[in-house]
Design a protein that fits this description.
Largest interface: A-D, 54 and 54 residues
CATH class of the largest domain in chain A: Mainly Alpha
Low-confidence stretches of chain A: 70-76
Number of helices of chain A: 11
Radius of gyration of chain A: 22 Å
Strand content of chain A: 5-15%
Helix content of chain A: 40-55%
Order of helices and strands of chain A: HHHHHHEEEEEEEHEEHHHH
Number of domains of chain A: 3
CATH superfamily of the largest domain in chain A: Butyryl-CoA Dehydrogenase, subunit A, domain 3
Oligomer: homotetramer
Structural class of chain A: alpha+beta
CATH topology of the largest domain in chain A: Butyryl-CoA Dehydrogenase, subunit A, domain 3
Largest sheet of chain A: 4 strands, antiparallel
């Protein structure tokens, strides 16, 4: 057992921290100004492309993707930077400190990361050439269309979008919402989850198909909001209607009935990334809370000297240290025993992260007074983003139920 | 001891409930549509004026203001509907069920209510004629400018805006923010809190002056956000700059040094109103949570049959019943022993209400899945509004400290 | 609506407060000393009888029992002090401040109170003469035997003790535990719940019979503990075995199948009493917390000046004021619309009281340092007693489920 | 970074798990029976000696003590099993599963462990020969006397026991309480903290001296309780009076003024041990909760199928995994950068452990119904033990304040 980062991680951390200081943090205000001046209210400000170019130049690019350029090992698929989950995790944390700029600058932003993983793992050569390569090059963006407004989508059996084979094509009908990134006109490709066979056993009913944005019948209808935010800087969260949308049969991923399994394969790394970035958010919130309460005075002394504020700061540190260590262990488990072997830990961090980070950011807001709610500090928007994680990839309640079943199973079998 | 409403309250409750069903709820969708079509992004949609006219016709008007038209009793000042706090409280709760429409329809919306109270209690005849009467008639709106961006405003001694006597005028310099309602161009009058004498004892340094919107030097600079909401339908929350703003000396309220006392007088009823409306919000959230979870199915049964969801519903009921009963008792205390005698209870409900209602609305959001975050349900916006109450009129932490001091004092003296 | 106590209540409160000061509090140390010197480790110390005599002399006796000596109204049955639940509630709170002495001194201690209620409401003349009268006179004590070690007793259908008719007798077989008071040799009569007809519909399977302590086959086996406490001063919590215990058929209460209904009738007033006494416990804990933290110094100032401690004190006040007001409203509802009409509120206070009071007593313990855990302060024992209320009369979880069902029913029917 | 145990740890874990199954768990009932039959109510039951002999035979002995028999490395002092903190931690967790038997069986029970560490690190050869050796051999037991009834002992400056040099002797006067283990007549040696120089700077006022139990003037007065438990099986928690107690000057540890530093040196490892054992307690509680809820039925299905119970089980798993990983990291830090370098993490686990484990054991109790409170299950006693950790070595509040100061210091310096 050893809790030190390895040399490769330390080296990349140092490079990334330098990049944050020299490029990312200084760009935050530019980004805000450019957001206000955009012509298309759903496009990314131009500073993002500058940052991407610089990050790529520095080799801080596609770090999330396992398997290096020359990798020939089982998990590797030759596209990524060759990092393990455990090596990437502390880098993802650092990008979380500037969540609107750093992940996209490194081409490590959701949902593209998950979509690239899926294409790298499951795409045909043609699919990878057509969609994976421009994603790896940061030229286009992508969306993953699963959640539906009409049903409780946490139960995959509820999915009602239909994908019907008709000759050499699949015909898609349905309505999706909260499709992150899809309002961005540069989001060119949708991976769509739907049902090919409602009569199959529950986890073989779904399939996934690739649907280019400009396919007739696909309408990106409106941006859904999150506590008033439209998240337009990273393509919003669209409601999308599929009305007799036809794609060639070769746009299917893997095979009919593989949709649920593909979705599962996508979740493990995605959760690690989300969790580590969220820890970075929490660290930034703690820093802001400390700085603000040291700088302001009430009732004759700095707010930082109030016992209740110190309690918040200490609790924040106590909670985030526990959480980070478990997330890192989970990354290690995924690397060593695989996603299935890390199932309990993946669910545990999926449940613990939003609860922990939401609490910390709430306290940082409270420590800021009214300013904490405002557009002048990143805290309120951070909070809203974290709050959505209690739903994303299924609500906490579903994961807790599943985790409890597994825990109880130990003793059920033992009887 | 008797927990039944009196006849007058029951009668008004019945009238108001009928008005909610016949006019307010049906107008909610109209309101949303008109919001999207406004020319001035900070003005109220026209349906609001229709509702005001109808409410006034029905006598559901200015119910918040104690002292009837012919009242000659001490507390009365001849303008209001003549209700006690205890009679008004359950009506305020009902308006909270549609928080963007019902309070304004009845001319019972903050911050006008507090401003009208102040003018009725402390205004000169000229001040009342010029500003109170059009407010009572719902013709104009008003703002209360206290919070400042540069200091922790919860400590009144920190207020840095200056109000300096210069001949027959006062000259005001300073910067305020989160001035609710001030983005609305029909907000015609500001009550401004500032310092006339920084060398006086702490609670005699402040004064309040009336500043008409179009006074030179007053700049309404921008709308501050609350999470991602601009709250434009009720005039937003403005940042306002006062740059050598000059008003006649007779615009002063009461006298120099009275600012803190006027602010305190304003808070008691204001808190009761906020608390009761918040309880109405919680009741609406519980209703939405029940309806949604009954209507949706996951894993083979309605979500309402999940044990955890039932726990949320039961806890919500348990908490809200406790809170409501204490708020009503507080209203009764204010009516019978006055604001000072009800100090502990007023602080208690100020602390308890946002914590309780925030928890309930959070659970209702969670029960809605992604929709709970969206613009298609009122829950996320309700949540953001309630969250601000943990700051409004001073953060919880300041009130708790004060309440604890009073509790400890019992035993300090006893020693 | 009126939150003032009526004249009768105020008068009794004054008398009771005087009795607490003059007799109860001074007896607390005597009680502790006598406990250590008892011959029978399960008997009450002699000071208890002195206090009972004095309370009775002062007319502070059997206050819990509705219906005065000459009462002829529906609810009254001619035995009690003639107080309503609303009148008795604030008196019960006061007795809670000295929970081991005051309730028993006034002959208002559980489980005798509930048993006397049941006998007054449902007993035959013979049963009342034989058992109710000596209970009213404080000459004997009694037990209610429902909970069983082998099953989850919160589901009444699980009860496995059998009560079988055999000629002119009933034969009882089964095992009960946590039978409060039964270790006291002066506990002369058991009301036993068991099944007379397992094939009847669920709520008609149970019956209740009176079983004198010295009936052959009844064995009081051992005292069950509560966090290390044996609660010997009020008769402990016994495990009791019924092995072919035979009682005359006329010992049945009401009729076969009435057991569940009798149990329900017993619960409403019992819960009000428990809740009000618990509030008295909380008030005593707050007082102890204030006194201790004012008296002790750490890091250069009284502990009472620590922000976190002030937060505890303020939160305690905020929570207890809400709870008390709802408990009083519940008492009023029971008096005016009956137990059934007050069902939601009775469950709400049953759920809220232990959660609230446990939290407060925990904070008072923490404020005392190690002493808070010890036998030198009443706090740890108070805490243990309150903790049991999360189970007593059914665990919180069962009550929440039932409360949620009722809440959901409003909307189920409305669809 | 690597989260796998090393080979030595795996080997010892296997041996210890085998010993738990073959000897410890089967002895639990024997232990309970022997407790009831003891002559001296404060002595350990004979089965404890049997287990000690067997453990020693198997080499499972003094595992807690760093530095092996032949160790010559910096940290080692030649007495222990030569394990690092990281190697010992998972073994301590396992012993926590049977907290009254396993730690003592392995001669790894507090407070002897800390006392042996202190003697090994700071004792003279004579002190080590006289007291350390019989402790290492498990022949005697020991106590650490620091907490005082009259002052808030969390502030070391408050300590009022005096240690005055008088010729070749030290004279000790004062009163201590909650001196764990001291009721056991075989507790032969006390390490006593007191003040030698009240005029020195705060952290140099205290000294520690060795006081044999039979020194005249030392009176072990009574056993303090924890909730209702006297913890007699491991020597209770004594109140001890020192009345002109005289010991030879060579009984001083290190030098005058070193008391605070010695106490600090003692705390790091002590906290790791407590935390890991507590995690073992939590794991046992989770197991009991699962087994009980699978075995009992209410309302037609096993209690384990209730959503709320599953929520408890899942939350327990989520929390304990985070906590354990951080405790292990803290052990690693202590081994690699020392106690001072691990200061934040040591405080973090000191704060997090009782909060987490108390919550889990509370839920396990609730899942057991009344039995959870009783002497028939270990849960209530486990809970009481864990509850004391929120005070032991200083209350949470003091540690949080200190931790917050360190966090704020980062930004204070940066300004």
């Amino acid at each position: 057992m050893d809790f030190a980062f390895d040399a490769r991680t330390e080296e990349l951390r140092a490079q990334l921290l330098e990049f944050m200081d020299s490029h990312i943090y200084p760009a935050e205000h530019v980004f805000e100004e450019q957001l206000a001046e955009r012509e298309n209210p759903w496009s990314a400000p131009p500073v993002v492309e500058d940052l991407k170019a610089e990050a790529r130049r520095r080799g801080l690019w596609n770090l999330f993707l396992p398997g290096g350029a020359g990798a020939s090992d089982a998990g590797g698929h030759g596209y990524g930077a060759g990092l393990t989950n455990l090596q990437y995790a502390p880098l993802a944390e650092i990008t979380g400190r500037s969540p609107h700029l750093a992940p996209i600058a490194l081409n490590c932003a959701a949902p593209d990361t998950g979509n690239m993983e899926v294409l790298a793992m499951f795409g045909t050569e043609q699919q990878r050439k057509q969609w994976l390569q421009p994603l790896l090059d940061g030229e286009i963006r992508s969306a993953f269309a699963m959640t539906e407004p009409e049903v409780a989508s946490s139960d995959a059996r509820n999915i009602s979008t239909s994908i019907i084979r008709d000759g050499d094509e699949y015909v898609i009908n349905g309505r999706k919402w909260y499709i992150t990134g899809a309002m961005n006109p540069n989001c060119r490709i949708f991976i769509v989850m739907g049902k090919t066979d409602p009569s199959a056993e529950p986890h073989r009913q779904q399939s996934q198909v690739l649907v280019p944005r400009d396919t007739p019948g696909l309408t990106v209808k409106r941006g859904m909001k999150v506590f008033g935010y439209d998240d337009s800087s990273h393509g919003g969260h669209a409601e999308v209607v599929f009305d007799d949308v036809r794609v060639p049969a070769e746009n299917l991923l893997v095979e009919e009935g593989a949709g649920f399994a593909i979705a599962q394969a996508r979740l493990g790394p995605g959760r690690i990334h989300h969790c580590m970035r969220s820890i970075g958010i929490a660290e930034r919130a703690i820093e802001l809370m400390c700085r603000r309460t040291l700088a302001r005075t009430a009732f004759g002394r700095p707010i930082a000297e109030q016992g209740v504020v110190q309690d918040w700061i200490a609790e924040s540190r106590v909670r985030i240290e526990q959480l980070r260590t478990l997330v890192l262990k989970t990354a290690w488990l995924m690397d060593t025993v695989g996603n299935r072997g890390a199932h309990t830990e993946i669910q545990a961090i999926k449940i613990a992260t939003p609860a922990t980070v939401e609490w910390i950011v709430d306290k940082a807001i409270q420590a800021h007074g009214a300013g904490g709610l405002s557009q002048d500090f990143p805290l309120a928007e951070m909070w809203a983003g974290i709050r959505t994680l209690r739903f994303a990839d299924g609500p906490d309640e579903v994961h807790k139920r599943s985790l409890a079943h597994r825990e109880l199973k130990k003793y059920r079998e033992a009887r």
